[in-house]
Design a protein that fits this description.
alpha/beta; Rossmann fold; 5-stranded parallel sheet; globular
Length: 453
């Protein structure tokens, strides 16, 4: 059997055993096919059935979450924790509270997390969890009661040397606080079993900013390789959550011009640069829609969802030099990729998890647009989470500057290993292949060394 036929056999089996889990299948297909150059050189991965083993989670936990709303009515949601791979360290990955959450989404995110975590050079395995609970429109008390109910089940499956969750979409400092408080109440222990904690009780400085900042640092390294910089570059950013906001913030720090942001209802375009203070007030203080931004900033244009191009997103049809997809999966389509290319975009830098569709990725590669895959470019958040774990273990707290130096160094090292691996396998600058092979090789070698477990 040829190596490609072996990969296709694994994928075909996975499609049968994981029906309806499109995002998970998309993620595994992208990773496994990119491993072809490595697998053709190293027969031991096939001999040890590593592909069959690595695409199956070590453990998938599904549980019911009953909580009481403000009207006294019992509400029910699904809870998930997919502990995918612990070959190089304890499980690590965020918790997502969003209506779109299901088992397939959790498996896709957990699978990606394996290789993202491996690329950081830190000893952390891959996992993901969450719920189809929607925090939008809920009171603080309802969110607190949901988090307490969620942790009442989750606490059985986590631990500082076993599984250390963090935040993700819908899970910020408020939710982490409620989750940690319930864990402490149930167990009677003050452990570093969550990251993203408050600074007063074990949190790390720059954790909130880390994914966005790290994404920009990665782009900075990539452009520098080709004697370019971010200074003066027009940057299209999607999203308006934690990642997008701090991507915009760091772009300003490095002299770039972030011209856009977006949410589920529409896109803001501001040619002179997004008003960061106004954006933070709308999204972090009032938790409001971006249509309010246009009312406080007359120099901006608001493009509602109904005016988006067919099969595309308005943010990627703006003239820009660098694109930072920082919202959610499959948000950058083939139509969008063609528009970015036409408008002169030289780099697409993924701040979200798998935001680029497969056909868009193929077009980007064929047209030689620089591309930073999310498992490399957005690894700053989980890297800083591990730095928080290190601080908790030593009962220390580092300064913002110390954490930032470490984060910048980690992102530089991730770029270096992804780029050097792409050179090693004859595809210089193809960071999808470079990052996937580098992350896979570290995890797969560890699995082989630990035996059939």
């Amino acid at each position: 059997m040829s190596t490609k036929a072996y990969i296709e056999r694994v994928l075909n089996t996975l499609e049968v055993t994981s029906p309806g889990q499109d995002e998970f299948y998309q993620a595994t297909e992208e990773v496994l096919l990119s491993l072809l150059p490595l697998l053709e050189e190293e027969s031991r991965y096939e001999e040890q059935n590593i592909l069959e083993r690595i695409v199956i989670p070590e453990r998938s936990i599904i549980f019911r979450v009953n909580w009481i709303d403000d009207m006294g009515k019992i509400q029910t949601n699904f809870g998930y924790r997919v502990q995918f791979n612990s070959a190089i360290g304890p499980y690590k990955g965020g918790l997502r509270f969003h209506p779109s959450v299901n088992l397939g989404i959790m498996k896709f995110l957990g699978f990606e997390q394996i290789f993202k975590n491996a690329l950081t050079g830190l000893q952390i395995g891959g996992a993901k969890g969450g719920s189809n609970f929607d925090p939008k429109g809920k009171s603080d008390n309802e969110i607190m009661r949901f988090c307490q109910a969620f942790m009442t089940e989750l606490y059985k499956h986590i631990g500082k040397h076993k599984d250390v969750p963090a935040g993700d979409i819908g899970v910020g400092a408020r939710e982490i606080g409620y989750l940690f408080g319930q864990y402490k109440k149930i167990t009677g222990e003050f452990d570093g079993i969550l990251t993203g904690k408050g600074l007063n009780w074990g949190g790390s400085r720059e954790r909130k900013e880390a994914t966005g900042y790290g994404s920009v640092y990665f782009a900075e390294n990539f452009l520098a390789k080709y004697n370019k910089s971010l200074k003066g570059k027009r940057c299209a950013v999607s999203g308006s959550g934690n990642v997008a906001i701090h991507t915009i913030e760091k772009l300003y720090d490095l002299g770039a011009i972030p011209i856009s942001c977006s949410d589920s209802r529409g896109t803001i375009y501001h040619k002179e640069g997004i008003d960061l203070a106004a954006l933070k007030t709308i999204k972090e203080v009032h938790h409001d829609s971006l249509d309010k931004y246009a009312s406080v900033d007359s120099g901006s244009l608001y493009i509602p969802l109904k005016e988006y191009p067919k099969d595309g997103h308005a943010v990627w049809h703006l003239e820009c030099d660098v694109a930072f997809p920082s919202a959610t999966q499959n948000e950058l389509t083939l139509v969008d990729a063609k528009a970015l290319h036409k408008n002169g975009c030289i780099l697409i830098n993924e701040g979200a998890n798998m935001p680029t569709t497969p056909d868009a990725l193929k077009y980007i590669k064929e047209n030689k647009i620089l591309f930073s895959p999310g498992k490399a470019a957005n690894a700053g958040g989980v890297a800083t989470s591990q730095l928080e774990m290190s601080q908790n273990a030593s009962m220390a707290q580092w300064s913002f500057e110390e954490v930032d130096i470490k984060l910048r160094s980690i992102m530089g090292n991730i770029f270096k290993i992804a780029y050097e691996t792409s050179v090693e396998f004859g595809c210089e600058g193809d960071l999808v292949t470079g990052a996937n092979i580098a992350g896979f090789r570290k995890v797969a070698d560890s699995m082989i060394e630990q035996g059939a477990v």
